[in-house]
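User: Structure please.
Assistant: Input sequence and predicted structure:
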Amino acid sequence: MQEPSSRHSEAPAKPAGKAVVLLTKSAFAAAPHAEMRRLAAIASMLPGVAEAVSCYCEQGQPSLRDALLSLRDSGHGTIVIVPLMLPMEPSFRNWMTRSLKRWQREFPGGWPPIHISRDIAQSLHFEPLLAALVGGASAEMPIPPADREATEGSLVPSQKRRVLVCEGGACNAAGADVIWGHLRNRQQERKLRITGDGTMTAKSTCLGPCSLAPVLQVFPEGTYYGGVSEAVIDRIVEQHLLGGKVVSDFAYAPTGRKQRLRSAPPPSLEQSET
């Protein structure tokens, strides 16, 4: 019997070239998710692009972190993140860079170089694109005058728990948007609105302890959490929101005195398995 060719027994070669990550803020319904996947398909056909994916820095799946982790060991020469947001906040690159460095520390090894493209408004092609959009608007169906608005009732939320994520300057610079997005995704996955006591989530202006950024606060206890990461969010969800037990490793009591951010404790075997 003829032995199989060695070329068939070799492991398939890893994809080379550039990976493109199309990033937007959030998407809730199926239609915007489908649109982002369509844009990623277009990007995948560009010269030099081996793979293109879409993701979200706030609520939506996959998150930016999950998308990058899926590309980390794919053998791509570089990863290019293309933000599709207008306007791009001045602090965007700062918290993005901090988040990327944190993820690289949490998941060491295998990372190709990562680049962030300029924002859309700074592109040389933005002006003709804007002109085309303005010119094409006349072909669209005009919006009819509004009818008399009907008065509708609203349900008063019955959820007993509230989580406020700080969106102050220090927290934004420390990646509050990433934390908010991870919390919202977990809220949907774990059905926190209807599980346990029920949990509502909201963004907040500055919560106060800026040196502990990023910060969130859990009610009705009013517990402050500082130095929050995705892993800390997961612990807060399981232990505090669903289990009713404060995660003391990252909780800060209102002592009336200044407090510094504590070093994160090493994960225990029990935590690493959850």
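The longest strand covers residues 49-56.
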